[in-house]
Amino acid sequence: MSECQLRQSTHPLVGGIHPETHKTESLKQQCMMLPTPPELIFPLHFSGGGPGHALVSVGDRVQQGTPIIQTESGIVHAASRAGVVTAISEHPLAHPSQGPSVCLFIRTDSAGPSLTLPLRSSWTAEALRQRAMEAGILGLGGAGFPSHQKWGDTLHTLLINGAECEPYLTADDTLMQQDADAVIQGAVALAENLNLTRIVIGIEDNKPDALEQLKKAIAESSSSYLFEVVVVPTKYPSGGERQLIWLTLGLEIGSGRRPVDHGIVVHNPGTLAALAHSIDGNPLIERVVTVTGDAVPAPQNVIVPIGTPIRHILNHAGVDSYGDLQLTVGGPLMGFTVHATEAPVVKTTNCLLLRAPTQQPIEPCIRCGLCAEACPVQLQPQRLFQMVSHGALAAAGHEGLADCIECAACNAVCPSHIPLASWFQHGRYSLQEEAQQTAIADQARQRFEARQARLTRLAQEQEARRKARRTQNSDMLAKVRAARGAKSE
Amino acid sequence: MSANWLNLVLGALALTGLTFAGGILLSFAVRHFRVDGNPLVDSIDAILPQTQCGQCGHPGCRPYAEAIAGGELINRCPPGGQDTVDRLAELLGVDSLPLDADPETAAIDQVALIIEEDCIGCTKCIQACPVDAILGAAKLMHTVLPDLCTGCDLCIAPCPVDCIEMVPRTMAPNTWTPLAPEIISSDRTTTGVALHV
Predict the structure, then answer these.
(1) What is the ipTM of this complex?
(2) pLDDT tens digit string along A120-134?
(3) DSSP label at residue B25
(4) Cβ contact (<8 Å) for A422 and B172?
(5) Which residue segment(s) compose the domain that A336 sits in?
(6) Domains identified in chain B and CATH numbers
(7) Is residue B158 classed exposed, middle or buried when 0-12, 13-18 and 19+ CB atoms within 10 A define those classes?
(8) Which residues of B touch A96 (CB under 8 A)?
(9) Residue A48: left if φ>0, alpha if ψ -120 to 50, beta else—which one?
(10) Which residue of B has its CA nearest to A416?
């Protein structure tokens, strides 16, 4: 008998924009399960959780749920359907780098029994972390951060990020409508085992159906938690982690700090639903993907087995030719263009957006300042752009480049169509790379100096020993001479 | 009359006192605010790539930094590449020079690799490594710790069985840095570094 406390957000978002939402198109059709594609593709290094290696070899039979990729962070990715491993070779990716990178190919066949994770009667925080790793759970909102790494011992608040503020995206909305029970179950399981005291749900006011389902699920839940549901006004980017914390909790996360430093863990509803399913023994092998855009005849949400080639999903939505269309993975603001439709869906792929390209000519910056008004982090994008585009990365770092969340609100308002956020992303990565290089050089300097000091010390010690030996020897010789002198006298 | 004399004496005494006080302050400042070493050497050393390879003709990066502070040419560092020369020129306020090395081989990020089945365990490479990046003991196989190796190739020459090779440094397979977007021509500077902000 959980309780639900509904309120409106009283902390307005700084900056932000009101783009056309285009959300209704993909919500007209019922969300269906995609038919199993003939081939599934799993990138070894880009599936989420860091670089990985294959746990199966070419020719092996896999069941649905068989672990196939072990990553550096401990996360294990499972086969999403039964089949035979046909190859491990390079393939294009749905990633801003475009790949190609090493992928594992599975030719699917008739489904056999699926492999499940062992059930447990009681759970602890450690068992939950372990389960998240073996079920391959990572942040499904887009960044793909390994969930178990967020679950420290000092947390007190769980914030469920159901804002989904980016235009066109309705995957989280659909999931909350269809699987609200699992979202609430996952939240309760996490809160109980990590001893959290507060569960807050942040949701934009353009999702009344999802809100209704959540309220129903909360009422049916048997836990004793009070769910605070905070409805936030529709404005981009209210779904940014820091932005939603401000909107719902009225707390500002300072520069260089993370929500977990303040005891807050933020999760996408999909991540929590996946956690609930993993407790029931099912690893994360499917996700909801929005297929939409002006060039898609039947915009919809589909439940897709991870590893499905994008082309297969687009075909399902009625797309048969691509021509000059532009495929964006993710939303129109934070997404990235993908050139190869044979690239597979990974766990962070939330939206496939197919549109006619809207490339407008880039003009010089006219210093209008609209980007500074739109920036939700209160940066000065026009100044940062000048700095980054001229290579003055250190100066941009001092101006807060690292605090940019790359929401691209500045791009959207720029009358000169300057891709500001792409510049900032480039600048941020370059700064990080530079810092790494400096750290490596510092280490080499320290090791060189330590070695020089050691060699000098050893030489000095040797010299001291030699001197001591010489004195000792000359003393002995002097004694011998003295004895001989005494004899001859 | 006597008041004038008194003023004169008092003035002289006051000035003497002030001089002494100033002298004491200065001697205190000399002792307590002295900068050890040449700060310019540290700034130069921070720009050098710390490979400690000795290709500049000095036994390490810091000795070369000291030589540059003493007037040596700034283009003697092949691992740093042209970028390092440009940054040194900017720091020292001198004109940049073309790098004194084959541009094909300069500034390649490489590491040493010991072909382990050929290693006889002579420890000669261990002694040559300027950053202690090689592990091993006499008559036992040696190995290079790639994270610590600076790619200076000083271990190649001493190896009696020629079992060390330089290979490109392998990056984590998911490393990726986004390229700079295209820029309009009017905003591109000709020098690339100077910026007025």
Answers:
(1) 0.76
(2) 989 999 999 999 999
(3) H
(4) no
(5) 289-355
(6) 39-103 (1.10.15.40), 108-168 (3.30.70.20)
(7) middle
(8) 176, 178
(9) left
(10) B184
